[in-house]
Amino acid sequence: QVQLVESGGGLVEPGGSLTLSCVPYGFTLERHAIGWFRQAPGKDREGVSCIRNDGLAINYGNRVKGRFTISRDNAKNTVYLQMNNLKPEDSGVYYCARARYYAGSAWADESGYNLWGQGTQVTVSR
């Protein structure tokens, strides 16, 4: 079965860090751009970051620039999202998604993704 599985979410205090992982099943990541999205309760899902298949092109949402880092290890078939200096407004369900193709500046358009994981919960609170 082709799927993406996220892990690494949890409860962290403001200012803390978490690293999320995205692992595929049924296919390999090396040919695909991968995006991270998040959704807080009552809010629309928003793009967090995207990395091209070769790792040489990366995009970030304005609200996470300078705090989050996306990376990939194609040998380990894994994409990571390192989140530092977390804020309560970073709380939500985080999803990784497989892109149909790397869309450059349109990376946050959800219609460009054809496979989504189930999500992992991130809660930033004291």
Structure description:
- By secondary structure, the protein is mainly β.
- Helix content is 0%, strand content 48%.
- It has no helices and 11 strands.
- It has strands at 3-7, 10-12, 18-25, 34-39, 46-51, 58-60, 68-73, 78-83, 92-99, 113-116, 120-124.
- The strands form 2 sheets. Strands 2, 4, 5, 6, 9, 10 and 11 form a 7-stranded mixed β-sheet that branches. A 4-stranded antiparallel β-sheet has the order 1-3-8-7, with no helix packed on it.
Please render the helix and strand layout as text.
Layout: E1 3-7, E2 10-12, E3 18-25, E4 34-39, E5 46-51, E6 58-60, E7 68-73, E8 78-83, E9 92-99, E10 113-116, E11 120-124
Parallel strand pairs: 2-11
Antiparallel strand pairs: 1-3, 3-8, 4-5, 4-9, 5-6, 7-8, 9-10, 9-11
Query: What is the oligomeric state here?
Result: single chain
User: How much strand content do the residues show?
Assistant: over 45%
Mean pLDDT: 97
Number of strands: 11
Low-confidence stretches: none
Output the helix-strand order: EEEEEEEEEEE
State the shape: globular
Structural class: mainly beta
Count of helix runs: 0
- Nearest-angstrom radius of gyration? 13 Å
Distance between the termini: 39 Å
Percentage of residues assigned to helices: under 10%
Main sheet properties = 7 strands, mixed
Summarize the structure.
By secondary structure, the chain is mainly β.
